[in-house]
Design a protein that fits this description.
single chain, alpha/beta, Rossmann fold, 7-stranded parallel sheet, 46% helix, globular
C-alpha cells in the first residue's frame, strides 16, 4: 500500500484528491486546520472502504507541519506522495490590502509549501524510493487572468509558489524525489471563503456571506481526476484546464517576447 499526505483536505480539490487516491488503495492522511470538517471527509472515505486518517495542521506554522510529518512517518507504510495543497485567498488591489491579509496569504500559500518541502523532502530522500512532492499553485502562477476581480496578494503568492517548485525541481534533480506544481484554473471550491478558520495572529476568524463563483468551472472531482492523470504522467506542470492556461500564459509570453524584440532593436541581436 502506498502512502500520501494532502494538506487542505477538508474540502475542495484536497478532499477530492484524497478520495480518488483512497479508491486506488492508497493510505491517505488528510490534513487541515478545520478539525471537524477534515475528520468528516476521512470518515466518509473510510465508510466507502478506503484507508484515510485525519490530522490537524496549520499550514502557516512550521511546528505544526513538523508534527504532521512525524505523524505521517509513524502512520503510513511509506511516504510516496505529498501534496502541499492548502491555500487561502484575499481580494482587492495590492496597495490597499491590509497587512494582516498579506501576512496570512503569504504564510499559508507560500511559506506553507516551503516548510512542507523542508520537513517532508528529507524523509522522502532518506527512504530512497521514487516519490513525488507536489504543491498547488494556480493559473495565477503563470500569468494574470483577465477574468474575475482583483486578488492581488493571492496572485503574488501563487507566482512565488512557481519559483519554489522550479527551485525544488532543480535541487532534487539527482534524487528519487520528483516535483510537480498543480495549476488549476476555475474550480468550484470555497477558497474565497476561508476566513472562518483564519488564525488569531492574522486577525482571527470572521463570518462572511458565502461566496459562490459565478464563473463556469470544474467540480473538485473533475479537477482531481485531471490532476492525478498529470501526476501519474510525471508532469512538472499539472493543469486542470487547457484553454484557460493557454490564454493566461500566452498573454505573459507575448509581453516578454515583445519586450525582448524591442530590447534587441535597441541593442542588437547579440546583446
Amino acid at each position: 500500500m502506498l502512502g500520501a499526505v494532502i494538506t487542505g483536505a477538508a474540502s475542495g480539490i484536497g478532499a477530492a484528491l484524497a478520495d480518488h487516491l483512497a479508491v486506488r488503495g492508497t493510505h491517505v492522511i488528510l490534513a487541515d486546520i478545520d478539525a471537524d470538517r477534515v475528520e468528516g471527509v476521512a470518515q466518509a472515505i473510510r465508510a466507502r472502504g478506503g484507508t484515510a486518517t485525519a490530522c490537524i495542521v496549520d499550514h502557516a506554522d512550521r511546528a505544526s507541519i513538523e508534527d504532521l510529518a512525524a505523524f505521517a512517518k509513524a502512520e503510513l507504510p511509506s511516504i510516496d506522495l505529498v501534496i502541499a495543497n492548502a491555500g487561502v485567498g484575499a481580494g482587492g488591489p495590492l496597495w490597499s490590502t491590509p497587512q494582516r491579509n498579506i501576512d496570512w496569504v503569504m504564510a499559508v500559500n507560500l511559506m506553507g509549501p516551503i516548510w512542507m518541502a523542508q520537513v517532508f523532502v528529507p524523509l522522502m530522500i532518506e527512504a530512497g524510493r521514487p516519490s513525488r512532492f507536489a504543491m498547488t499553485g494556480s493559473e495565477h502562477s503563470l500569468g494574470l487572468p483577465a477574468r474575475g476581480g482583483q486578488a492581488s496578494i493571492y496572485t503574488v503568492s501563487k507566482h512565488a509558489v512557481l519559483g519554489v517548485a522550479e527551485t525544488l525541481r532543480r535541487d532534487l534533480a539527482e534524487t528519487p524525489v520528483d516535483v510537480s506544481i498543480i495549476c488549476p484554473a476555475v474550480v468550484l471550491t470555497d477558497i474565497w471563503n476561508p476566513l472562518r478558520t483564519r488564525h488569531e495572529r492574522f486577525g482571527g476568524p470572521r463570518v462572511i456571506e458565502q461566496r459562490t463563483s459565478t464563473e463556469p468551472g470544474l467540480t473538485p472531482d473533475e479537477a482531481a481526476s485531471r490532476i492525478l492523470d498529470g501526476l501519474d504522467a510525471g508532469e512538472f506542470y499539472v493543469f486542470t484546464h487547457g484553454n484557460d492556461i493557454a490564454e493566461v500564459h500566452g498573454a505573459q509570453a507575448a509581453d516578454i517576447t515583445q519586450a525582448l524584440d524591442r530590447f534587441r532593436d535597441r541593442y542588437g541581436a547579440e546583446a
